[in-house]
Structures are given as structure tokens and as C-alpha cells.
Amino acid sequence: MWNELEPVIFDLSSPGRTAYTLPEIDVPLSPVPDGYVRDELNLPEVSELQFVRHYTHLSQKNFSIDTVFYPLGSCTMKYNPKVNERAAAIEGLTQVHPLQPESAAQGSLELMFKLQEALKEISGFSAVSLQPAAGAHGEFAGVLVMRAYHQSRGDEKRTKVLIPDSAHGTNPATSAMSGFSVVQIPSDERGNVDLQALRSACDETVAGLMLTNPNTLGLFEEHVLEVCETVHACGGLMYGDGANLNALLGIARPGDLGFDVMHFNLHKTFTTPHGGGGPGSGPVGVGEKLAAFLPGPIVVKESDFYKLEMPEKSIGRLKAFYGNYGMFIRAYTYIRMMGPDGLRAVSENAVLNANYLKAKVSKHFALAVERTCMHEFVVHGDIPGTDVHALDVSKRLIDYGQHPPTNYFPLIVHDALMIEPTETENKEALDAFAQALIAIREEAISSPELLHSAPHNTPVTRLDEVKAVRNPVLCYKG
Amino acid sequence: MPYIPVTEQDQREMLTEIGIHSVADLFEDVPVQHRFPDIKLPKAVSEIEVLDELYGMALKNSSTGCFATFLGAGAYNHFVPSAIPYLATRGEFLTAYTPYQPEVSQGTLQAIFEYQSMVAELTRMPVVNASHYDGATSMAEAAIMALNVANGKRHKIIIAPFVHPQYRQTLRTYLPGKQVTIVGDENPQASLSDLKAMVDSDTACLIIQNPTFFGDLLDVSNLAEAIHQAGALLIVVATPIMSLGLLTPPGEYGADIVVAEGQPLGGGMNFGGPYLGIFATREQLIRKMPGRLVGETTDTNGRRGYVLTLSTREQHIRREKATSNICTNQGLMALMAAMYLAYMGKQGMRQVAELCYHKAHYTAARIGQLAEYQVLNSGVFFNEFIVQCPRPVSEINQELLKKGILGGYDLEQDYPERKNQMLVCVTELNSQPQIDRFVEALLALQGV
Q1: A144:B60 CB<8 A
Q2: How large is the ipTM?
Q3: Cα separation of B146 and B256, whole Å?
Q4: What are the residue ranges spanned by the domains of chain B?
């Protein structure tokens, strides 16, 4: 890592210095009327070499999948194949204006159509809209579709969405944004939805249940068929949060299990890079009865012509244009490279890796729930008899060159460490991570201060987050 | 199998460690009748074959790289300097996650802090986030924020008919959960003063686009004062963002929230995404704002560093009480926009904007000389303008395509009364010979 302090780009600036070149103006000038022109624009003035070093240094202050093991639970930080980037840089695919005539964009539309079809087949749904730009955006699409479906039937009293207590924060936030109130459903001691609690919550005011399966404990819902039946019996719909789909490719199709609607995370399951938090891509799939409500436009094929079409009773458009197409190219490339057998091998190995690592780690850290896990598992990260917590273990892992797992989530597990190794890591990498955790556990007893003050070999040590809130500095002040 | 490194030997050892006999044993929780479905997809191909397939698809597109492009309307054909993709696709940026562990994410965090700082200068607004998907969703979230600022006591959103049609459609999709009415754009002719007159004590915000969707620059003098007097917020869509290289930024005429499409700043057109929703506001409104914010602080040794901050507004903390469900920070796109602003710098941003302005005016003047075409913008415009054509725009565009020209946007699609009206966009990528070729092609389509 680059541990030197890197100046803010404004501090590298010198008046008159430039990096850019532009053609000379080749048309007559037209005066800009008074009153419309801004006075000044104080952007940096740097040379191209300064610029390149600056951003190279910044990049070297990051952990990334390309540099270290990154077992961030529920984020599916698996390897991002480089062919994806080459594909997504093909000029004939990228230099395409979203509003150019369909006849001049048949290649891009064909790719989108084929991706829609592939996602339908993988998930067991009958229609897919690629428009949502991220997982939370896909959730929003899905919940709005549920709402529109109930309203189309004159069923106006469904005001509640049920959400298990292990769910991601986006689920309740999305439901609220869509005008629903949220009812939290507890988990049972095996990490499943508490069926008894679910049954008593289900009535004619329930729009649906949002279920992540496998859930954020990394566990497959053991009563998934009963859960779907129970919700359907009261007239509700089953929303699937596809965050953890990496466990299910070729293993089970959510549409077959009884889900009515689900969003995909192309940036998790289908190897589009996370980019420091975005752009993602969150297509939404639905069963037959919800297809007419999908956001659009979506791509349809008529004879051999691909065109954009708004579904009949669409909830509308969720953004300008058609979705994060750059991510579609990558996801499509990946699906073609893997094929159906490869996709099943993805999930088999993701689950194998997780269970292997669980077997090693659980000898030293207590499991949240003792069960065969799917693609991830959760342990308690505190060390009994010491004042070492999940945060300290996480920070110390950094000194061992490992990215920490997701910590303090799910909220129902105290000191949670949520570990998702993914299928792209080899056994040696898993062994090294387990070894690091074991060593840290010993350090927690012999020299806990090492953990409390960790990390030590990073560009900065622990940062004062309270100061950042009390006295917000959100842009460069010179 | 590509990307999966587990060998048969590894698998045997791992199964032993787990204490099971086969991989299939791991899936016993999956209902047996649905376990291991047959997935009917084409079999796997090699890297050579997949690239071949994609090159084939690319040939079925008319790429703007080979065409003279006069199409804008929310997605803009600007040059991306070579150094930007070269650096932005470094694995350390590309394959990192949201910077939850700040000690090992200072690269992403400082880059976003610099993005916030440069966009603050560009818009002259003090607080900028880096979370939104595109200009349309940014605007919809701004409207929701205005409703939240009013604590649910104001129920009206006024939006100008000259805001991008797809932004207005997106807004309507976003709001079914709210007790609110959206007015203003039911009259396609409504002027800024008509809209201003509609602002009342039930109005949460007025949303305008400046330059407008039709390219016009608005007279915004005394606008914000009038809105604020009624207790409402002024939301300005600053699309196309490149206009701010030259023109008065919304922060200087009293905007409360500024949103824009950030794609022109170093992002390609990519058939509509991924793009970047610029979102900026005033300090007083921070706690109502959606999205991720990066703040400067110090570490235990007193060194400068950056963290995600003020996150008690957000979904992972507040759940159903959050200001938005947004989880993304549009990191890579914000990084590219920051790089663009830094690379072009103080002088370059001004020059790009001037090139767009002068070339657009040259194009408009040339087209205005054609007998059967008329430029309809009466006031000042930036780099887009409306041309009244002698024939349907879709027909003209099909003819232009044959000559390697991507014509402008057909306004009749969204404004039925605007028959045969084309929204033309000109950028620094349109050379004079290209413009002349476009004008000659239009000329050739007269009287046919």
C-alpha cells in the first residue's frame, strides 16, 4: 500500500498548468450575452503526470479483490474476470447513444434481450426488466410492482410489508419509500423465519413478505415452501431479495420455490466489478401474473427485430433510459463463459468454500447458528474473557493483509462477523485466512492492545468518526 | 472451469474437513423436488468465442465513434481523455467495495472527497453526495427530500414542462408512496413565470431545468427569493452539466438542491448507463439529504483521513426511517467525474463549454439559413436547440443515418404538439466539416 500522505488535488495545483488538449475553435465566435457567464471556476490546474501519480497513489491506498482476500459477507466479493472489462470497452457496444433509432442499435438491444432471457432461465421467472440500477433500486421496482398488482385488483387495504429481523436495511427502507408500513418477523433458533410469528402476522392487510434466501446468516430457509404458502394464503406476494443468489445458481430457482418477484445483483452474482460502491445493476424478475407491471422499457423481439417496449400496466420508468448497460455487457459475457454447468459449479464451490472455512473457523469462534451454511456464515467476533470485540478482530485482520468480513451485521447476532469467501478463492487463501483468525485469537489473550490499536500498517490508523460528524468537513477548504 | 480454483484433490480434503462425503450433501436444506434444476442455457464458450460474439453484436450497432452525432437530450457525446479510463480501471479502484473499512479505503474516500469538492465548486453548492444512479433518479430523490424538509406538511410539487420528459416520468414512478400531487407540466407551454405564480403555502418545491430540455437559458433573477418567500425549495436540474463550465451556477441564484446528469464528465454514453446522478445542497439541509457523504477527519496519530459520515440518515442504520433506500455510492462514476474535472481543470472546463456553445450557435445559424428549416429558440441557448423540420424527424433521421449522421431527438415523442421538431445537440466533438456535412444533408432533404 502507498502509506505516504497524498495531497488533496487542489494542493497540487499551480496557476497556468494544464493536462488537457482540445482542438482550436474552427467556427466563428458567438458572443454570450451579459449576465449569463460565471465569474470563475476554481478547479485544480495540474499536469498529466501529476494527475497520473495522484490517482495511482490514491488507488494504492485501497484494498481490492485484485490485491487481497475480501470475504465481505453478503457482498459477494468474487473475482471480476478481465474479459468482462475488455468486452465492456468494445467501442461498437459502448459508443452508442441511448436515444438513437432502434434500427441503429440492434446489437445492444440483442445483448439486452439475451441477458433478460438468461436471467429468466436461471431464476425460473417469466419476465425480467433490466432497468433498476442497483440492488436497492431493484427492490424498489419489485415492491412497487407488488403494490401495483394489489391495486389493479382493487385490493387497497394491503398496507404492510413483512420483513424478517435478519434483513438488510434496504428492505425496510424500500418498503417505507413505497408507502408501506413495516412489520418485523422474528427468526427462530435455527435462523429461519419464525413460522408461528409469520402465521399470526399474515392477514388481508399484508402486501407481501421480503425474504432473503439464503438469509443473512448464510442459511437456506428450511421451511421456504411453507413460508411461501402461508404468505400466498393470505393474498400476499413473496419478494425475494437476490443478494445471496450466488448460493443458488443451478441449485434452486426462486421462481420454482414460490417467489413472485426478485431482484438480481449483477455486481455480486454475475461478476460486474463493485467499483468502490457502484455502479451496480439490479434487474428485477417476476412470475407471469406480475409481468405486465414491470418497470420499462424492456426489450422484446419481433421477427428478427429487437425493440423497446413498455409493459402493459408498467409501474413506469425508474430512471432515464434502460439500466446500467455497461454492466449488462459484463454479466452477459460471464454467463456465456460459464454456461449452465459452470454456473452450477459457481454455487457448489461457493458453498463448499464457505463450509470448509466455517469448519476451520468455528473451532475458535462461536457460530451464530450451528447448521450447514450456504455461501456464507456468521460467527461471534468477540473473544470471551477479554474486552476484544468484532471490530478489533476486523481491524487486526488488516495487518495480516486480509480484508475484514462484514461486521456487526446481521443485527440479531451480537458481535457478528459475516464471512463470505466466494468460489473464486483457492484453498490456500482460505487456510491463510483461518490461520490469521486463529493467530489473532491468541493475540487477543496475550496482547490485546495489539488488537485495540490495529491496524498498524495502513495509510491511516483508526479514524475519529465522532469528529467527522460533529464538525463536518465535506469539501476542500484550502 | 474458469475462475474456480478448487481441484479434485482440494475438494476431497475440504469435504473431509467438513465431515461429509459429497458436495451434494451441502444442499439438503433445499426442497428435493426443486433441487438441481436443469438450466437451459447455451454451453460455456471460451474467451475467444465470447469476444467474437460480442464483436458481431457491435457490428449491428451504428457506433457514434464512426458517426457524426447531433443527438443529446440527456446523454451527451463528449470526449473522454485517455488518462481517465486508464486510471479508473485500475483494479484497486475497480474491484474495491463501498469504503466501510476506511483504513484500507483511503483511495476511494479521498477521491470522493475531491469529487465533492470539485462539484461543489462547479455548482457553487457546499454539500455534494456521490450516491445517485443518474440525473433522473437524483431529481426524484431531491423532490422526496423537499417533501421531508417540509415534514410532510406540504403536498405539492411543481415541475416545469421543460424538464427532461424521462426525469418527469421517473419522478412520478418514485412517488406513489407519498400524499402528493405533481403539477406544472400538464401545460406544455407553461413559462417560468406561470410556474412561479403557482407556488403557494402547500408547495414543497419548484423543479426547473436550466438550461431547459430545449436548450434555453432561463432568466432566473428574483426566482429563488419568490420561492423562498412561500417557504418552498428551488430544485434546479443542471443538465447538461457541461454548461456550468461557462454559465452562472445554480448555487449563485439561490438553488436549494442542484441535480444533474454527470455522464458528460468522463463517462461514455454506454447506451444509457451506468451514469452518475449529481446531487448538491445547502448546509442547512444536510440531515435531510439522501446518499453517502465523505468527511475529513484525523486518525489516532493526528493524520488527515477520510470516512463515510453522517450515516444516521441512511438505511443500514435507520432502516424504515431512512431518508432514502439508497445503498450505492456511485463510486466509480464519481471517480471518473472527479478525474475529468481535475484533468480538464480550471481552463479546460471553460474551453469545452465554449467550444460547445460556439459550435452550437454556428450550427444553428447555418440551419437557420435553410429555407424549409427554422430554429425556434428565441432567446439564449447553450448547446441544444430546436429545429422545425419540413418532414417528420424520424424520417429525416433514417435518411441521415445512411450518410453516417446521427440526427437529433424527435420531440414529438414526448410533446405531441411539437410536430416535426428536432432537438439538435452540438459538442466539442463536432468539427466544422462535420457540421457542414449535417447542414448539407438537411438541405438535401428539403422539398422531397
Answers
A1: no
A2: 0.97
A3: 9
A4: 8-50, 68-78+348-444, 83-341
Of B266, B268, B238, nearest to B250 by C-alpha is B238
CA distances from A146 to A134, A262, B173 (A): 18, 11, 14
C-alpha cell at position A79: 473475482
Domain ranges across chain A:
1-60, 84-338, 340-452
CB B273 within 8 A of CB B75: no
Rounded to whole angstroms, the Cα distance separating A16 from B185 reads: 45
Q: Is B435 on the interface with A (CB under 8 A)?
A: yes
Closest in B38, B61, B305 to A106, CB measured: B61
Say if residue B448's pLDDT is above 80. Answer: no
CATH architecture of the domain A340-452 equals Alpha-Beta Complex (3.90)
Whether chain B has a CB inside 8 Å of the CB on A348: the answer is yes
DSSP A435: H
For A72, A227, B46, B271, the CA distances from A239, given in Å and listed in that order, are: 24, 11, 35, 29
Which of A177, A270, A371, A397 should one mutate to test binding to chain B, selecting the residue with the greatest count of B CBs within 10 A? A177
Q: Which stretches does DSSP call E strand in B302-348?
A: 304-309
Of the pLDDT bands very low, low, confident and very high (cuts 50, 70, 90), residue A454 is: very high
Nearest Cα to B144, choosing from B123, B171, B165? Answer: B171
Nearest CB among B105, B170, B294 relative to A317 is that of B170
Share of chain A above pLDDT 70, in %: 100
Asked if B68-78+348-444 and B83-341 have one fold, the answer is: no
CATH topology of domain A84-338: Aspartate Aminotransferase; domain 2 (3.40.640)
Q: Which helix (H) or strand (E) holds A207?
A: strand A206-212
Element (H, E) at A334: helix A325-361
Nearest to A65 among B53, B86, B95 (CB): B95
Minimal CA–CA distance to B99: which of B365, B332, B258, B284?
A: B332
d(CA A398, CA A392): 10
The proportion of chain B whose per-residue pLDDT surpasses 90, expressed as a percent, equals 93
CATH 3.40.640.10 is held by the domain B83-341: yes
Considering the domain B68-78+348-444 in this protein, what is its CATH number? 3.90.1150.10
- Mean pLDDT for chain A? 97
Measured between CA atoms, how close is B11 to chain A, in angstroms?
8
User: Within an 8 Å CB–CB cutoff, is residue B443 touching chain A?
Assistant: no
